Amino acid sequence: xxxxxxxxxxxxxxxxxxxxxxxxxxxxxxxxxxxxxxxxxxxxxxxxxxxxxxxxxxxxxxxxxxxxxxxxxxxxxxxxxxxxxxxxxxxxxxxxxxxxxxxxxxxxxxxxxxxxxxxxxxxxxxxxxxxxxxxxxxxxxxxxxxxxxxxxxxxxxxxxxxxxxxxxxxxxxxxxxxxxxxxxxxxxxxxxxxxxxxxxxxxxxxxxxxxxxxxxxxxxxx
Amino acid sequence: xxxxxxxxxxxxxxxxxxxxxxxxxxxxxxxxxxxxxxxxxxxxxxxxxxxxxxxxxxxxxxxxxxxxxxxxxxxxxxxxxxxxxxxxxxxxxxxxxxxxxxxxxxxxxxxxxxxxxxx
Lengths: 222, 119
Ligand code: SF4
Ligand code: SF4
Hints:
The structure holds two protein chains of two kinds. In chain A, the strands form two sheets. A four-stranded parallel sheet of chain A has the order 3-2-4-5, with helices on both faces. Chain A is 29% helix and 19% strand. Chain A is of the alpha/beta class. The mean pLDDT of chain A is 96. Chain A is built from eight helices and seven strands; from the N terminus they run βαβααβαβαβββααα. Chain B has a two-stranded parallel sheet with strand order 1-2. Chain B is mainly α. Chains A and B meet through helix 3 of A and helix 1, helix 2 and helix 4 of B. One iron/sulfur cluster binds next to helix 7 of chain A.
């Protein structure tokens, strides 16, 4: 899923201070699961902002709403009938949701309430870690299901660099060397032969190097 | 056992302190409460294993937010005791009451009163 992190409340206060009618808009998907922008976080942020501004003698209208998704037209349409009630929206969706809302409601200021961090997994309670960088041509079949693109600091594709020490990456003793993990898993799978095969030069044009990406599916278009 | 406890707070019963969320604490302050204390079982004795640990984290989260919005994080506090410790409950209640009396009314309550008076 997409992992996001709550922005510091001071930053949000600063962004909204000149507006009077504000909608805090959550999203029911990834940001709910990573506890950054779901219904609960919407309630907490709205309550905190209301208290802050009451305390400043500047009471504002701060409403709460959480949509099923903010990256789909049909759900974003649900706020169209109330949109004129607000002068700004703080969206707690990932960067995709914020932008999609901004495209749809052209004259409505959209303020992100979270920092979108990465594509990752919920490794433990309170711990989310990166697993994929959406490179557009997945190599996991050759790397024991462990991604060297997102998990190796250098994105090397044919075994570890010289900095791999005791299973850790040279950038930090707290970061596993992705290639150590790959070798360990290939061993467990009895597929160390794969390790000897030299990976072809990766087509990075499907990564960000080729500019913004799109997926077009003629087979599902109507 | 009849114990004297301050009469100026409202007890909200929950099945386990793990049920208490950050928003419940914040709403109390938004409605004008001067302080909130959460009383859970002893750590390690939770019937649901982690309920009171979750509550502690949420109290900490709420305190941080209250600090940032100018209400003051010291107005919320977590206590732990076992269900048989009535006198300790009374003691904690008095302790919390004294602390809040010292701090005075919550700025939210004052701001709301000012607004009412102005209207
Ligand atoms: S190889 Fe590319 S697509 Fe596959 S997991 Fe890694 S970044 Fe994601
Ligand atoms: S030590 Fe491992 S993870 Fe770190 S850059 Fe080198 S190969 Fe990549």
